[in-house]
Amino acid sequence: MDDLHELIDIFTKTNNYEEMQRLFEEIFTQREKYDFALRWRLMKDLHDGKTQREIANDLGISLCKITRGSKILKDPESQMNIVLKERDYGKDNR
What we know:
The protein is mainly alpha-helical. It contains 6 helices and no strands.
C-alpha cells in the first residue's frame, strides 16, 4: 500500500486545478474517470434525498453500488458526509 499512500500524498499536495486535471488525464483511463464521476454523482444524489431506486433508474447502475454509498452516508462522521456538507454550505454562500 505504499504506492497508494504516495499517490494520496501527491493528490493532497496538488492544489492547482489545471495540474490536478492533467494528473487525472495522465493517470486514469476515460473509464476510470467516468466511474469516479458516477460514484460522486450517486453520493450527491443520495445526500440530496433521492431514493436508491430513482438513482438506479437515472444512472443505470446496480442497487449494490448504491447501497454501499448509502451505508457510508449513514455514518455522520464519514469523510463523504463532511465533504457533501461543505459542498452544501458553499452552495448557500454563492
